[in-house]
């Protein structure tokens, strides 16, 4: 991910706090954004976001599905 420039971890003035992982839609590659300041919480955050990134990489070759548009049997029974 580092070689592909898919990590933005450094602290910079004006950069938003926290961190998140997003999957680049067309390439289906994970991108991790984080504002690391050198504390224990940074380690916890990068490990958490890396878990999402590993999932994105594992699912990269799988076909995209739209399960969110289907109603679950629970939702249908609640009508």
Written description of the protein model:
The chain has two helices and three strands, in the order E-E-E-H-H. It is an alpha+beta fold and 79 residues long.
Radius of gyration: 17 Å
| Order of strands across the main sheet | 1-3-2
**What share of residues are in beta strands?**
15-25%
Helix-strand topology string: EEEHH
The description of the largest β-sheet is: 3 strands, mixed
Low-confidence stretches: none
Task: Label the overall shape.
Answer: elongated
Distance between the termini: 45 Å
Structural class comes to alpha+beta
User: Quaternary state, please?
Assistant: single chain
Q: What value does the average pLDDT take?
A: 85
Q: DSSP helix count?
A: 2
Q: Please report the total strand number as a whole number.
A: 3
The share of residues in helices is: 25-40%
How would you summarize the topology of this molecule?
Elements: E1 7-8, E2 19-24, E3 29-34, H1 40-58, H2 73-77
Describe this protein with a few key phrases:
about 80 residues, alpha+beta, 3-stranded mixed beta sheet, 3 strands
Short description:
The protein has helices at residues 40-58, 73-77; strands spanning 7-8, 19-24, 29-34. The protein has 79 residues and is an alpha+beta fold.
